[in-house]
Amino acid sequence: MPGSDAQVTLAAAPPVPPSAPPARAQRLNPTGRAILLTVPARDGAAYLGDVPLTIGPDDSLSFPADRILQLLADVLDPQVLDALRANLAGKTTIGPGDVVPAGIGIDYDPRTLELHFRIAVEMRASRRLSVSALDRSAIGTFAKPAGFSAYLNVRGSVDLVESGVDTGFNEPVFLLNGATRAGGVVAETDAIWSPGSYGPDFQRLGSRLVYDDMDDLVRFSAGDLQVQSRSFQTSPDIAGLSVYRSYSVLNPQMIIRPRGDRTFTLERPSTVEVLVNGSQVRRLQLAPGNYNLRDFPFAQGANDIRLNVLDDTGRTEVLRFNIFVDQTQLAKGLSEFGFYAGVKAPLGLKGPHYTDEWITSGFYRRGINENLTLGANFQADKDIQMGGLEAVVGSSIGTLGASAAFSHTRGMGEGFAVQATFQRLIQHNDGQADTFNLFAEHRSRRFAPVTFFLADNPYKYEVGGGYTHAFSSGFYAGVDARFSKGRGDNPDLHNYRLLAGWRLSPRANLTAEARFQEDSRGKEVSAFATLTIRLGQSSSVRTEYDSRDNRVRSSFQTIHGTGVGSYNVSADIERSDFGSDVSVNANYFSNRAELGVSHYGTFSRDFGTDLGQRTNFRIGTSIAVADGAVAIGRPIYDSFAIVEPHESLKNADVVVEPTPFGYAANSGELGAATMPSLSSYAERTIPVDVPEAPPGVDIGLGSFKVFPGYRSGYKLTVGSDYHYTAIGEMIDEDGQPVSLVAGKATEVAHPENPPVTMFTNRQGRFGATGLAPGQWRLEMLDEKKSTYLIDIPKDAEGAVQLGTIRPVGK
Fold first, then answer.
1. What structural domains does the chain harbor?
2. Which of 484, 489, 496 is closest to 459 using CA atoms?
3. Average pLDDT, the chain
4. Which of 411, 515, 657, 693 is the most buried (most CB within 10 A)?
5. H helices then E strands: how many in the chain?
6. Which pTM was predicted?
7. What is the rounded CA–CA span in Å between residue 133 and residue 131?
8. How far apart are CA 494 and CA 482, in angstroms?
């Protein structure tokens, strides 16, 4: 994105006539012949691309016209660009003076070997900026995922009963889950293996094939479906086919709620801070131009959006606007849906039980405009059919949601249900906010979605709501209530609550509740209080009291480090009118596994008679494969990367994602590390380090950028064969040094790889870095187009001294 350090604008620097090169303290080209270079072109601090540049004997500059037009295509206003194309029609090579009539200046900086474009504000195109957490256009090149990858997680646990019934070790239980991805298709499954237990040893929980169409953002599944529901729908067990779209699943970086669009113009290079509800979400360095600012990361409720603009002269400007949105809304034109069809497949003792009873379910939602989202849904089997509608309306006073559904149950008749909700967030000038919500729901006696065993709803209607007010940054209070009107012999239910919270100090918080409840057991008034004290940044203690059964509970928890070597410990002690208990839980995260142990003990009265003591031991690990690489690591949650050292590192340890608080994994003695926590369709940069890398070995950029697909794997190699440097002297066919020219080195065995750019000095000396063992062709841009062949030995160490090299025959 354009930066803020552009030094000059067109208005401040009038164009230089092409016939009069500017005076310079030092000649650009004292050689007396043309010099060919490949140099970067910049618009301010923004890198536009490389340009072949010819510096003539008279210091004149020339470059290909097509390349200049290509670089300016995304910078200039379309009308300005069309006019420039017309002016340059028929010209293959141009100089800086040829673009002056279009309001463009081009300078060459001999110190940095760069071309700098100077473009007036009115000549620039409007640009779209995203204020989302990530701007994909700035991410760069992603590593390529493995063509074939797979993993298997194994989580095992075993109980040791010290006292109580059936003392000793119980049979172990293993939770197995894994996935295989090939050609974009994922096969995944989950199962439980409990050898020696009563009943079947193995129970498959579900298996399916999944394919994601990322062009249309649609997920196709076949097998044991994972049904998503809306409104009054249930989530039945279905084996069959499904098609599904959810932006939070398939495009989590996309903001799908209504977006605010604002246009502004910058006359000077500026810094723009974007604040949402007082929190800075992005800081942009922008060159002069016209901008459309989109995709604000709105919080739920009333939003205060502010842009603080500071230009390079010190001038400031503030732009502000407010808008109300709700997380369930969709922006105009966006749609989410899910359609599922197949047979009922309830989970049995050995796995899903596939019946011959058909069943289907589905929903569709669409953003009609910035304030209105509508949806419809249905479910049906041979016994029950249900259809419904829903709507979400956002306005300046709050968000109203409504849904209605109608059902038909064989042998029992029709039923219907309606529900309405209202949400409001009221912000104050001091930064505090109040929350207010209401809901009401009615279900007829015989209303039922699919899989209901008996359509007999016990309540005629339910209503409720709540309001919370922040009196200051250290104190808030509120009230909420819920009433359910019983149908027939079912009693009415009353639940009312007063609540408050105090920040007693930067480390201590107190919350309290007063509650009234009435149900079939009668009326009850109770109180609940919680005191939480932080002990440093990683530990805390918490004490609770509930008057309903005189329950007192004290807890301690601590968390240390991240990644390998991190651990957490928690302990609880509790007593009530019904007895007392104590529990301790600890987890440790190693490089290859997660380890855990917990103990739970129960006692009568106030820690009197021992009623039972049980200790649980846990371990979780994974084995992963990606394009032939194999690694053992901690359990994988979605996608993963296998990071392995290249042989040039000579078994040096590769550390993955090092931070001051720990690291995610390391290659170690097994030779490969597993990065287990990559999320689907979310950009991620994986930094790596090799603290004990051999001298002279290049480990690359030190990081990998990835964009994982669903259940995908990566094979990432740290280091490569391309770390050698060739040093020598070039002479042309006449025995003269090939001086002050650029060239490229191409690997003969792999001409498809990007070439290595190289330069010579006045004596013809050069250094080509980033070469691998094998033969390389060096092609120089001197007048004679000199070409050389060099060999890098396999047993070379670091720099390869070539001495004087001569061109090969054409």
1. 35-123 (no CATH), 624-718 (2.60.40.2610), 724-805 (2.60.40.1120)
2. 484
3. 85
4. 657
5. 3, 55
6. 0.74
7. 7
8. 6
Q: Which of 584, 581, 621 is CA-nearest to residue 601?
A: 581
| Burial label, 801 (beta-carbon count in 10 A; 0-12, 13-18, 19+) | exposed
β partners of residue 673: 643
Q: Cα–Cα distances in Å, from 654 out to 407, 643, 685, 691, 723?
A: 60, 8, 16, 8, 17
Q: What percent of the chain has pLDDT over 90?
A: 49
Instruction: Decide: 581 and 603 in contact? Cβ < 8 Å.
Output: yes
Calculate the CA 41 to chain-centre distance.
32
Phi–psi pair at 526, nearest 5 degrees: -145, 170
**What's the 3-state SS for 92-143?**
CEECHHHHHHHCEEEEEECCCCEEEEEECHHHECEEEEECCCCCHHHCCCCC
Given a contact cutoff of 8 angstroms between Cβ atoms, the answer to whether 410 and 287 are in contact is no
CB neighbours of 506 closer than 8 A, spacing ≥ 6? none
363: tokens are 């929903």
Residue 300 has pLDDT above 70, yes or no: no
Contact 301, 433 (CB under 8 A): yes
How far, in Å, CA of 389 to CA of 380, rounded? 15
Question: From the centroid of its chain, how far is CA 679?
Answer: 7
For residue range 270-286, list pLDDT tens digits in order.
777 776 655 555 666 67
Structure tokens at 623: 């084995």
Which range has the worst mean pLDDT, 143-147, 331-335, 700-704? 700-704
Q: Find all residues with CB under 8 Å of 306, minimum gap 6, and list them.
A: 274, 275, 318, 319, 320
Decide which of 133 and 497 is more confident.
Answer: 497
> Which H or E run includes 581?
strand 579-589
Q: Can you read off the two tokens belonging to residue 463?
A: 């209503």
Distance CA 685, CA 678 (A): 10
Are 732 and 738 in contact, with CB atoms under 8 Å apart?
Answer: yes
Residue with tokens 């480990």: 699
Which helix (H) or strand (E) segment holds residue 179: the answer is strand 173-182
Backbone phi and psi for residue 244, each to the nearest 5 degrees, phi listed first: -150, 140
Q: Which burial class, exposed, middle or buried, applies to 432 when counting CB atoms under 10 A from its CB (0-12, 13-18, 19+)?
A: middle
Q: Are 568 and 586 in contact (CB under 8 A)?
A: yes
d(CA 397, CA 279): 23
What DSSP line would sit under 403-433, residue for residue?
Answer: EEEEEEETTTEEEEEEEEEEEEEEE-TTS-E
CA 622 vs. chain centroid, Å, equals 23
Q: What are phi and psi of 102, to 5 degrees?
A: -85, 5
Q: Which residues of 680-696 are buried (b: 16+ CB within 10 A; e: fewer)?
A: bbbbbebebbbeebeee
Nearest to 406 by CA among 370, 356, 448: 448
- Per the listing, tokens 């019934």 go with 165
Q: Write down how long the chain is.
A: 810
pLDDT at 6 over 50: no
H/E element holding 67? Answer: helix 65-72
Q: Residue 43: pLDDT band by 50, 70, 90 thresholds?
A: confident
pLDDT of res. 418: 96
